[in-house]
Predict the 3D structure of the following.
Amino acid sequence: MVGFDGHRGWAYYLAVSPGHRKQSYGRALMQEAERLLMERGCPKLNLLVRSSNAEVVEFYRKLGYVQDEALSLGKRLIHDQTPNSSSYGRAGSIASNNAPVRARHTTKR
């Protein structure tokens, strides 16, 4: 998935099945993403890779990507769940600390 906010392009979650790696599918997907973004006037494509994922970092380096002098900040809004729990309760509610919260909708009559 790629996006363009009018300032920079972003690539999100590029993946190739392990059985299909080393066949240039990832390269082809990135080339198409770059083509689509350039077609829209995007001057630069950004992406995030975990620093511990050396294989993927090397993949992007071979495609011409370099590390920017930027710091990525994040804030977890929903904490990771245990395998048997869900961040969502019943339909229409979001669970937080096992306490369901419902959105209220009011209409004027």
Remarks:
- Residues 2-62 form a domain with the Aminopeptidase fold (CATH 3.40.630.30).
- Confidence is low (pLDDT under 50) at residues 87-109.
- The chain is about 20% helix and 15% strand.
- The beta strands are 2-4, 9-11, 45-47, 93-96, 99-102.
